[in-house]
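User: Hello, beginner here. Can you help me understand these amino acid letters and fold codes? It all follows right here:
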Amino acid sequence: MADKTPIKMMYDRLLVELDKETGERRSSGGIVIPATAAMGARRLCWSKVVAVGPNARSVEAGDRVLFDPEDLAEVEVNGEIYVVLRERDIHAMAADRLGDSATGLYL
């Protein structure tokens, strides 16, 4: 996105690009499950942060964040779809700069 339209996010807003595999999933048997299929529990999505507003405190561009896709606002920029989120809507973050996390999880 750096070589396209310059975008400055405001306040604590984040601009993220959805992972390609977020839409469809495969069952353990190899059956493709479309994104529109209903599930018993809500499924959270991982995305890469493309731009960060000046008031975001913990998230940086390049981080991967986990959020609820039910609460998203999509925007199209130069033919690509992005999602605008507030920093407080993020459930988790994965980044090399975090070092050893308190959870002991490695993603």
